[in-house]
Amino acid sequence: MLQKEHRTVFDSQHNAISLKSITNTILDLFQFKYVLFNLIGTALKARYRRSFLGFLWSLLNPLFTMMILSIVFSTIYKLPFLEFGLYLMGGLLPWNLISNGLVGGSLAYINAEGYLKKVYLPKQIFPISVLGVELVNFSLSLISFLIVAFVFGARFSWSFLLLPVALLLLALFLLGLMLTISVVTVYFRDFSHILQIGLTGLFYLTPVVYPLSFVSGSTLQRLIIFNPFYYFVEMFHQVITGSGPLSPHIWFYCLLLSVVSLTAGLFIFLKKENDIIYRL
Amino acid sequence: MNNFIDLEAVNVKFKIYRNPTPSLKEWFLNRFSGNSNRDNVLEFYALNQINLKIEAGTRLGVLGLNGAGKSTLLKTIAGIYYPHQGKITISGRVTPLMELGAGFDAEQTGRENIYLNGSMLGFSPTEMKKRESAIEEFSELKDFLDLPVKYYSSGMYGRLAFSIATMTEPEILLIDEVFATGDAHFVEKSAKRILDLVERSQIVIIVTHNSQQIIKLCNRAIVLDKGRVVNDGNPIEMVNFYNQTLVNK
């Protein structure tokens, strides 16, 4: 632990946003990586503590959800069970990641008040650890879902190889949003409640439990175009259902949205990171 | 290595909001009724134009009444509060000995918390592994170490926290009233440990209401009043000054 020279400067004059402050945000994360891993590990353990099946639940939960929803909706819509099941979970898994990530992210600093007021830690650790927890859950669910899908007779599709790319784009998009809303909630606590209602609305504005073709030509479809989450869910649909060609414009919009969201998130975070402590 | 702490005209401002987080309704009402929430905000300087140079070898005692800004000063040096004005330059690794057990997770076992807490102090799991047995021994927790810390008595909690926090090689040590934890036996043991740490550190800053401790441990003292440094010098003189001008006013 003996470092060459450990120098810290807190200067009220030079905390403007610059390339250097952005690099520092990332470097700090490396320096405190064990805290990040510990926070993620602790949160994951807490989720399954004292349950008999433990981590298996993150595998079983999506499995049963998929069975129930697939049976219900393939009966209502009279669509083939497996095909609709793939479509449904292909949308529901990323949607859950979005929704859990945003709700958790909005409370990131508020739940970490005990840490923030007592020990020095880089603030970005808290929203990022929330994202980390949700990414681990997402990955476990996805793997169990794919196994089940193969058992039910789904075929391997080359498009699965794009899953990591799709996940990376979504993770960066979410990170930007979470950096933003975690700060917003510190100043307006009502925001986390508004967010939850907003997400309920947005769920139906995203084609998850219905195929987009069901609403073509309606007002709903015209609204859906303005829902940024639609593009990400659609991206996962294309990868997971493996049917039809990939549409490059969807991927392009996702990339664009990720860049915009991450830039805005970093900007707001750097602007407010030193003030958060005074508002908790 | 040349360790130092340099505070230049440092201000830390606290805003006390009668209503810290207005609901949206209140926020809009305040915005548009012209009745700005200005009168709801009480602003005060917890640290006011602090200039302080601390060189290697200094054992600095901080004296002051409750609310004079002693703990805020330590927390600002530790990086918890960011100065609103001014500049702080610190050369050396800061080890805070305040708010013991701040980073504990109640659901985790004592052993797991050794690693969690260690990571917050800047140590990797490998580095904590080397310290684990020493912490186990010093804390005298024995079998309790593998129980979640929520089942600990407050004495046990304090013992574990103290053992972790003092199992480091500090360059700059910040101590905020953490002299007594646990039973008489442990208090004596921890007092010895503190002395040892103070001796090994390059710079020590001690906040305590116990003037004798400052006279015993420090070679320099400052007196804080309402966020300002009102006097700075030899510990015995400062304790006398503090008692005459502030305590027995």
Sum this structure up briefly:
By secondary structure, chain A is an all-alpha fold. In chain A, 71% of the residues lie in helices and 2% in strands.
Report on the architecture of this protein.
The complex is a heterodimer of chains A (280) and B (249). Chain A has 280 residues and is mainly α. Chain A has one domain. Chain A has 13 helices and 1 strand; from the N terminus they run E-H-H-H-H-H-H-H-H-H-H-H-H-H. In chain A, helix 2 crosses helix 7, helix 3 crosses helix 7 and helix 4 runs antiparallel to helix 7. Chain B folds into 2 domains: 130 residues, P-loop containing nucleotide triphosphate hydrolases (Rossmann fold), CATH 3.40.50; 105 residues, P-loop containing nucleotide triphosphate hydrolases (Rossmann fold), CATH 3.40.50.300. Chain B is built from 8 helices and 9 strands. The interface between A and B is large, with 41 and 48 residues.
Molecular shape of chain B: globular
What is the CA-based Rg of chain A, rounded?
A: 21 Å
What is the average per-residue confidence, as pLDDT of chain B, rounded to a whole number?
87
* Helical stretch tally of chain A: 13
Helix content of chain A: over 70%
Radius of gyration of chain B (Å)? 21 Å
Order of helices and strands of chain B: EHEEHEEHHHEHEHEEH
Class computed from helices, strands and strand pairing of chain B: alpha/beta
CATH class of the largest domain in chain B: Alpha Beta
Strand content of chain B: 25-35%
Q: How many domains make up the coordinates of chain B?
A: 2
Poorly predicted ranges of chain A (pLDDT <50, ≥5 residues)? none
Structural class call of chain A reads mainly alpha
Oligomeric state of shown chains:
heterodimer
Write down the domain tally of chain A.
1
Q: End-to-end span of chain A in angstroms?
A: 32 Å
